[in-house]
Structures are given as structure tokens and as C-alpha cells.
Amino acid sequence: MLKRKIFSLMFICFICIISTLLSISICNPCLANATRSMSTSLTRFMVRDEYRCVYQTICCMYLTVPQDMTTTMIVNYQYNGPSLISSTVIVSANPFYIDGELLIADGAVYYYNSKCFVVHQIKEDNRYQCWSDITGLTPGTTYFYASIVTASDFQRNVSTHHNYKFRTASTNDSFTFVNGVGRQWNEPAISLADLATATEPLFAMIGGDIIMNDGNGNCFLDWDYWFAMWHKHMTTPLGYTIPLLTSIGEREAGTFGAPREWDSFYLHYFPHQIGLQDINPQHRPTHHAHSINNLNILALDTNVHTSISDQVDFIKSQLSTKTTKHIVLYDLPMAMPHGSHNSIEWLTSNQMKEQWLPLMTDARMVFENHESPSDYQQINKTFYFGTGVGDTALIVDTKDYCVKFLRNREIHPKIICTTP
């Protein structure tokens, strides 16, 4: 009788152990349709991803384009480690060096306090997302920058290992920018990135669907990998970090018309306006405008979190200045390619044609993404460019607003000039 009770108890314990292991092995799955690699909490614990943010380090350093790139910049980064007390971005017009608590610099150094918050979606790390508004800059100037974090581990300071570098836009010189690089990091895409960075672009635009994991919070390693690849392949030959100007796509949230809560990372990772510190990142605006000299760029939301109709007045007000050249960036094309049968896509596309298309006559160029063909068309005086299938990137020179196509690992001979 006693042996039977002991055996029953051992069997129950065995079942409990097996059940626990099974629940752990399938806990927090990253099972998005196009994730870099499917995983669970257990597999992420057992197999360390080489691109994962290392404990007690600063990682994922990148820039986002603010409203005015001539005098401001937004520096973004993450910290993985003990409870964060404070964080600062250091900026100087001269290179500087951080050695523990000692900062060695030649010339003036400026300190900007960062706003940081816990990335609760990343359940397996103590991860913080930080950003700093860098203001009061001089147009057309090179700046070096680094970040420092003070954490609760005996108030230990953690800093970036080296200076990063950016440049502000000039108030009168022309510049180049790129569109369509970075939506994936396979071999052809890396070749496109190498060609694009060789032109020393001032910034890069990505019109949605940056990472196709449908906003799954368990797929945070996709973003770690993406930012590592961006830093590796989107730093120019002269060493400049290329700032990002993005618009949201449905793959950031899983579908069109999605609640903001479904968007685990995009809203948190891409501030595009100075002065958002008091706004919950989940409530950041998803349509915004950027002015560089006489160029005005509108980044729009094709009904992911903000409806088509709710952006009409914004578009009208932005495109009303006739002396300014206007460029528009968004995800979903107005003319859906043949074979797409998603009713939400078709409804959104038709709404765009009805409400946005008449307004675009005042835009010089429109960049569409999603599944748009890698080509262009002209409607009235406006040129519509597509880079949705991921095999093409575009280089735009604001000297004459001519567009070069990067395709099949080379600069295509086709050049489209949009001068009226």
C-alpha cells in the first residue's frame, strides 16, 4: 500500500515536471508569418542570439529624422541591465573619448538628458528604450555623439564604446536621400544598401513593413538583428550614421485598422518629432511632416492606426504652400496590384484614391510601398514611385529631383527627372 502511494506521488511529480517543461518550451512564442526565426522563451534562453542586446550594455543606437533636420536630431538607443537611474547623450563638434568616469574632449561638449522607459513587451530582458532631442545645432555641421547610462548597480556608468557621427542639413545646399533600403537584410538587400550608402545620403526613408512580424512582442530579437544590420550596412563611407524617416505599415501591427495596443514596437521605437517626452509612446502621432530647406516631406498612415479621413486636413494644410517642393511617403499603394484579395486593403486603397489622390496634385513625388511594383507612373504632374517588392531602392538628388533606381545589385541606367 505504501509503495503504491509512493509510486503515485512520483508519477504525479513526473507529470507536473513534464507539464512545466512543456509550458515553458511553448511560452511566449514568436510565430509571426515572416519572422527571422521562430522561437519561444526556452529556445531564446538556451540558444543565445549573436545580435541580442548584451546584458549591461547600450545597444541599438540609431537616429530618427525630426521636423527640422537643419538644427535638430533625435538619438535613440536601448539599455539592457539593472534598474536605470538616468541617461545622457553627449554631443560635440569634435571627436571625444569616454574612459570610465573620464571624458576626454577637445572643444565644447554638450549634454542632453534622455527620456527612457521600460520595454515591457520584452519579458526576458530588463530592457529600456531611450531617446534624446538634440537641439540648438548649427546647419550643415558634423557632430559626434555617444550615450551614457547610470544604473542602480552601485550607480555604475555604462557608455557606448566609441563616438557615432551625424550631420545636420545645410540651409542652402542640395543633398541626396534614399528610399526603400532596409525592409529586409538578405544578400540582394545588403548589396542595395552598399550602393545607397556610397552616395552619402542625408537620410533614408522606409515606408512601412520594416519588420514583418505583425507586431508580435515576443519577436523582439527581429528588431535587435534589424538595428544591428542597419548600423553595419547603413553607415556611410565617411562614417556618418544615416537617420531614419519612417511611416507605419500594417506589418508593424498585424493588420489595417489595428488598435495601438497591437503595435508592440514601432510606436515605441520611432519618434519623429521634438518634444514627445510627455506623451505615452503608444499615443505618438503616426503622420508627421519634415521640412528641410524648401523640401517638405509628409509621412502618412495608411489606416494602420489613423484613418484615411482623419489625415485629410493635415495633408491639405501641408501641401498648401506652393513655393515648397512636397514629397509624400506611405505604405499601401492607391492602386492595389492584381491578385490582392484582402478586403481591408481594397477598402483602404479605395478610400485613399477618393480622399487623398485629388490632394496629391501639389506633391512632386509620392513613394508607395507594401506590394507596389518597383516602377513609377505619372499622374498629372505627380510622380508615383513603388519599392514594395523589396528588390529595388531609389536615390533622390534634390539638386534636380532626379531619381536613380538601384536594382539587381547595381545602379540601373534608368533615371527619372521630376522637374516640371
TrEMBL record:
It comes from the Eukaryota. This is Calcineurin-like phosphoesterase domain-containing protein. It comes from Acrasis kona. GO terms for molecular function: acid phosphatase activity. Residues 1-23 form the signal peptide. Keywords: Signal. The lineage of its organism: Eukaryota, Discoba, Heterolobosea, Tetramitia, Eutetramitia. The keyword Signal applies.
